[in-house]
Amino acid sequence: MTVITEADLIESVADALQFISYYHPMDYIRALGVAYEAEQSPAAKDAIAQILTNSRMCAEGHRPICQDTGIVTIFVKWGQDCRLDSTRSLQEVIDEGVRKAYLNPENKLRASILADPAFTRRNTKDNTPSVMHVEMVPGNTVSIDVAAKGGGSENKSKFKMMNPSDSIVDWVLEMIPQMGAGWCPPGMLGIGIGGTAEKSMILAKQSLMGSIDMAQLKARGPKNDIEALRIEIYDKVNALGIGAQGLGGLSTILDVKIFDWPTHAASKPVAMIPNCAATRHAHFVLDGSGPVYLEAPKLEEWPDVNWTPDKAAIRVDLDTLTPDVVQTWKHGDRLLLNGKMLTGRDAAHKRIKDMLDAGEPLPVDFKGRVIYYVGPVDPVGEEVVGPAGPTTATRMDKFTRMMLDQGLLAMVGKAERGGDATKAIAEAKSAYLMAVGGAAYLVARAIKESKVVGFADLGMEAIYEFEVSDFPVTVAVDSAGENVHQLAPLVWREKIAREGLLTPA
What we know:
Layout: E1 2-5, H1 6-22, H2 26-38, H3 42-61, E2 71-79, E3 82-85, H4 90-102, E4 114-115, E5 122-123, E6 131-137, E7 142-149, H5 151-154, E8 158-162, H6 168-179, E9 187-194, H7 197-207, H8 214-220, H9 225-238, E10 253-261, E11 268-275, E12 281-286, E13 314-317, H10 323-326, E14 334-343, H11 346-357, E15 370-372, H12 397-405, E16 410-413, H13 419-427, E17 431-434, H14 440-444, E18 447-454, E19 463-477, H15 484-499
Parallel strand pairs: 1-3, 2-6, 9-10, 13-14, 14-15, 15-16, 16-17
Antiparallel strand pairs: 2-7, 4-5, 7-12, 8-11, 9-11, 14-19, 17-19, 18-19
Helix pairs in contact: 1-4, 2-3, 6-9, 12-13
Subunit structure: Homodimer.
Domain Fe-S hydro-lyase tartrate dehydratase beta-type catalytic: 288-486
Pfam families: Fumerase (PF05681), Fumerase_C (PF05683)
């Protein structure tokens, strides 16, 4: 009988979560490096360069790849000849490891988990509880997969209870454009087929724990129907031309993973979950000999990509910005923002609405200002702010007209804007600017000062004022309502079809 001590399990979980907060899986980095070399879209190539540069910076600095340090998912295969030496439940022990990782003072991770999700949505402060799946298996070891899944990609999960004769490929191709860019491509697609509704979702999530091997699969050819389906979906999704960050290009996904399970004769449940540019997962095995510490990758394994601001980018002074200047920007323009900008995301926007409805004064004047949709990681050491990449702008769509009515000149976030928000932006002659998701540490280097100016009780969702220097963004929706997330993929879809471009794996 192998004895797994409480202390060893806690330490191993904590180490793995810290590890994946700043180290990408190297299979992802290698695949992204290949995609960077092959990419022909300037905007997408620039975005991939930011992601790769950010990844190496995080590996060197041991700081989070993304400001959204995720909801923790744990897959446990517990050997039946193992015993947990603890008076606490397995869930409680693993959550103690999560707590230890997220409250680590040398690299404190953002706590994003809210209790009472339907009502008060209170932050648990330590990112617990985790979501755990346990399987009892023969053997005398405990095998654990640890993942930290960001909300932007998790929110794009799809499920359908199909008819047995329905096409899985057709459904995937229908869903991908609906997912937009909030899941921060290029990433992976995890697909679960069969079982029941909940089983297919677990299969999809579990499939994402595997290594990227599409290049090897395509080189040797498929050996079964599942492998052939993986290749077909990979090629057809990339042919859509969505590209990195939805900016149009060759690489939307780097791999497709599929797990299946027997199902009822009347059913074909299918789930799809994307993994984002901040792909974070690791595997370790406990054998009773002590805690497991993961081996750090070598920095020379990263591609030699060092992002610098585009020389053609337009420098913008936020402190003297006027509507006339905003109206000169065209979709696709690259800007470097300088000066003071405000922040605010879901909770702040909801509170602003409640205050306006009640006739109460706001803590901040938004007239003539730019707002950044962000919830930063707490700073450590001499940092002004921790990793501070953009959150999904689409979630703020329902507040857009309200904010523009306050005199807001522009917004910064990630992913696309919906039709109503785009219309409001055009009517106000405003603009929406896109920062790269998955480059949070790189972006934070452009933030030179930070202070809370409103709703301090909201923590990372408070309103901050950032002083920025050469903060890189792309004009995603201009004052005429021209939307790069709608237009660029169409151009690249046609180009891929016309020129027969194949996405490398």
